[in-house]
Amino acid sequence: MSDYVIETHGLTRYFGQKCAVDQLDLAVPRGSVFGFLGRNGSGKTTTIRMLMGLLEPTRGGATVLGYDATRLPPAARGRIGYMAEGHQVYSWMSVRQAMRFQQAAFPKWNGKVFWAVADYFSLDRQAKVRDLSRGQRAGLCLALSLAPEPELLVWDDPALGLDPVARRALLEAMVYVTGKGDRTIFFSSHMLGDVERVADRIAILDMAVLRASCSMETFQAAVRRFVLRFAEAPPQVPAIPGLLEAWRDGHELRITLTRYGAAAEGVLRGLGAEEMREVAVTLEDAFTSFLAQRGEKSMLFADGRRESRLAGGAV
Amino acid sequence: MRTLSVTQALVWKEVREMWVWAAGAGILFGAELAYIFGIATGRLPGVDVLVVIALMVGIVALFTPALCGVALGFQQFHWGGRRDSWAFLVHRPVSRWQIFWIKAGVGAVLYLVALGLPFAGLAWWIGGVSRPADWEHPMMFVAADILVGLAYYFAGAVMALRKARWFGSRLLVLGPAVVMSIIVVATTHAFDFSPQRQAESLWPWLAVGTASGFGALAAWGLYVTGGSFARMPWVAKFGLGTSIVISILALGGLAVAASIAIVGLPEEHRGDFLVRSEEPEMNWTVSYWALVPPAAVPLDLGFEAGGMYPLGKPVLPAGFELASWFVLSRVELMGMGVLAAVVMNIWASRRYGYSARGRVVWIVLALTLGMAGVVLFWCLPELPARVKCAKCGRKRVVTRETCGHCGAGWARPEMKGTEVFEGV
């Protein structure tokens, strides 16, 4: 049995001339909680749809539970709990009818799990799906994907469109189900705060290209931020290896970068700052910096106009 | 609480979603039939009763089942085929073909029940009143058209499921159903449902079954692959391809008929060019031979041997004058069509990076289908996008690992120096 439940090799998808996923190589270890991150339109949903055999790759391929993703046999689909983006359930069904409809197809259906999650989200069994709130609808989808006792859960942006309370409830339910050690959870999101609470590994997709694939700790350790204070206006930022962004704010220059090493340190020291100190970066900040447009930015010009702009060529 | 079987659950879902639409179709059809019968029995003020009945039965029976069939098929598969809805349904430990056939079976049965009930009701009603005319014949006509509506139902499903580049090409799958409607109009006597007559002739049933079968196979293939032509089983590709070829040829025939109507025919032949003439030399299809697939030649020769000329003979009618260069034998016309088709398909299959085997297939299709094979190339498969090769600068298709011109592979995505990768 492979150590990975999902593996992709050069997975590529075009929509017309636009490359939505570019040569993605990814490995999701068995038993991990894997956060798949990226901004809107970065290719997360396209990747997940290819993994589920719902979309044909243009090139490359993927295996899920050891099967070619384009030819997943029905038995393999029974081992995967999939929640599509947008919490799709037939709106005319009641909660109970939706449960019965799913139950008919899945041989390992666990009604106790279903109703436990449904009760957690206060779902009335007779309520029509169309009358549920977004959070309740997400809860219903969560229950439908958990009750078959799958060994792999694939959720496409499960918290999409939910208010903070509903999102918290969903995350708590996710934390609850991650307790089962051999179950793998692969979920996409563009909210790192959500991922932070549950994931142990992440992959970041940026404009169709994989930019990070590592443990949460590694990612947080890799992204570092330094504040440099100058006696006068900070100098133009030179090329720094791994530079993500440089914020110019008065006499201060805040530089965020990855893979900080001797080369980067040498450049920073060479800027002639009066003081250089490292500040803590939250995961949310690290993620935002990682996906933001790279380069130098300033908030305040000498004449006092408040503005934000990009100064190119600073990588 | 009893657990449903997979089949029961899927049937319940489809019936629940479709019964309202089917009922609407049935009410529409029933109301039309009741109105006609009301005229026929004098319960409604009518004029020339027989003419009105003949016209209305023709229109109602020909168009309503077709419209209802297409609408039901399209409705059922369009809304159910939306991205997330389709994903929710097919992501379960049930084969996609099973889901499709249950879905299509329920849809077809609902269609037949919806239109069959008003028909049966009318037949029963007619039995209890004095007949205004020869009602058996129109009733057979109506029954035949209800059956042909099945071909429209599957065509509607294919239109909903097919991801065609050009929306108009989705309509091309209607060909077999339309041809069946024409056959019903032309040969209503064949749809005599009396046991004696049915024992003599099974071909109308075969024809309806075949027309529906092409659509059903195509819809099945599209459903199980999510609309991807490349992954469709070969029988499904055959069903879809045949439907489109029939449509292309039917459109070609219509175009020729229209052009003759515009150009004009000799006085003595006006009015009869759309049907097989008793005079074989009356050839309205001379230019159509450039479109006729060589594969149809044996069939045509068979007709000719039997004294029938469904495609006409390659002789221009007396008094029908065209420029001399235009007057070509049908072999010459067909040869020109085939040659052009082969050249175009070779060029197109090279352009879109087909393998040697794929190119051979398209050449064979051009040889057997003529110009219809060219239209098929542009309508049937997904044509991959072409992007600039980073090495040679020429266009290459995105589906192949190597450039067709310089053999270069794909460059890895450019790294920015900020990436964070860690082995597991």
**How much is the average pLDDT of chain A?**
85
Domains of chain A (count): 2
Q: Structural class from helices and strands of chain A?
A: alpha/beta
Global morphology of chain B = flat
Can you tell me the overall shape of chain A? elongated
Strand content of chain B: under 5%
Query: Spatial order of the strands in the main sheet of chain B?
Result: 1-2
Radius of gyration of chain A: 23 Å
Largest protein-protein interface: A-B, 63 and 47 residues
Q: Outline the biggest β-sheet of chain A.
A: 6 strands, mixed
Class based on secondary structure composition and strand pairing of chain B? mainly alpha
User: Major sheet of chain A: order of its strands?
Assistant: 6-7-8-3-9-10
Query: Ranges of chain A with pLDDT <50 over ≥5 residues?
Result: 298-315
- Spatial gap, N to C terminus of chain B: 46 Å
Provide the CATH architecture of the largest domain in chain A. 3-Layer(aba) Sandwich
Helix-strand blueprint:
The complex is a heterodimer of chains A (315) and B (424).
Chain A: E1 4-15, E2 18-29, E3 33-38, H1 44-51, E4 59-64, E5 67-68, H2 74-77, E6 80-83, H3 95-103, H4 111-120, H5 134-146, E7 152-155, H6 164-177, E8 184-189, H7 192-198, E9 201-206, E10 209-215, H8 216-222, E11 223-229, E12 243-249, E13 252-258, H9 262-269, E14 275-279, H10 283-291, E15 295-300, E16 306-311
Parallel strand pairs in A: 3-8, 3-9, 6-7, 7-8, 12-15
Antiparallel strand pairs in A: 1-2, 1-4, 4-5, 9-10, 11-13, 11-14, 12-13, 15-16
Helix pairs in contact in A: 4-5, 5-6
Chain B: H1 6-40, H2 49-80, H3 83-90, H4 96-127, H5 136-161, H6 167-170, H7 175-186, H8 195-200, H9 203-225, H10 234-263, H11 297-305, H12 330-351, H13 356-369, H14 371-379, E1 386-388, E2 395-397, E3 420-421
Antiparallel strand pairs in B: 1-2
Helix pairs in contact in B: 1-2, 1-4, 2-4, 2-5, 4-5, 4-9, 5-7, 5-9, 7-9, 7-10, 9-10, 10-14, 12-13, 12-14, 13-14
